[in-house]
Amino acid sequence: MEGTGSYLALVVIGVVITVGVGQILLRSGQPFLEDVFQNKETAHSINRLLVVLFHLLTLGVLGMISIIEVDTGSAVQTIVFKIGVVLLLVGVAYGVSMLVLLRIRERRRQMKVSADIDRSIAEQRRGVGRFRRGQAGGDRDDRSPSEQPED
Predict the structure, then answer these.
(1) Are 6 and 75 in contact (CB under 8 A)?
(2) How far is residue 141's CA from residue 79's CA, in Å, rounded to a whole number?
(3) Which of 29, 41, 77, 109 has its CA 20 to 30 A from that of 83?
(4) More confident call, 138 vs 3
(5) Buried b / exposed e across 36-62, counting CB within 10 Å, b at 16+?
(6) pLDDT for position 1
(7) How far is CA 59 from CA 3, 62, 70, 84, 87, in A?
(8) pLDDT confidence tier of residue 117, bands split at 50, 70 and 90
(9) Which residues contact 69 (CB under 8 A, 6 or more apart)?
C-alpha cells in the first residue's frame, strides 16, 4: 500500500462500513431474536452482545488486513481489494451466526411442539374413563344399544 493516506482511507472506510452495518444489525436483529428467545429482555441483551461481537471482529479483521501488503498496481485498487476481503470475511461470519440462530429457533419450536403434544396426551389420559359418551354424571345404563329406548 502506498503511504499513510491510503492506510487511513482504508481504516476510515472500513470503520464507516462497520458502524453502518452494525446499526442495521442492531435494528433488524431485534425482532428475529425476540422470536428465537421468546423474551424481549433476553433478545435485547443478546442483540447488543452480537453487535459488539460484530464490531470487534470486523475492526480486528480490518486492522489485520490494513497492514498486509498486497500488490494490485495502485493504492485505490489495494483499498478496494482489502475492503472486499473484509466484507467477505464478515459476510461468512454473519452467515454462520445466522445458521446457529436459525437452528436454535428451530430447536425451540420443536421443543414447544413436543411439549404441546405431551401436554395434550397427558390431558387425554387424565380424561379417559371419566365420562362415557352419551352419559352424564354417572348414571349408567347397562342395557345393550339394541335394548335402549329410541328418542
Answers:
(1) yes
(2) 90
(3) 29
(4) 3
(5) bbeeeeebbebbeebbeebbebbbebb
(6) 44
(7) 20, 5, 19, 14, 11
(8) very high
(9) 1
Residues 79/9, Cβ–Cβ less than 8 Å: yes
pLDDT of res. 45:
92
Nearest to 60 by CA among 3, 107, 121, 18: 18
Residue with cell 462500513: 17
Residue 79 near residue 13 (C-beta atoms within 8 A)? yes
- Name the residue among 5, 23, 11 with its Cα closest to residue 83: 11
Q: What is the grid cell recorded at 119?
A: 401436554
Tell me which residue has cell 452495518: 21
Whether 44 has a pLDDT exceeding 70, the answer reads yes
- When pLDDT is averaged across residues 144-151 and rounded to a whole number, the result is 58
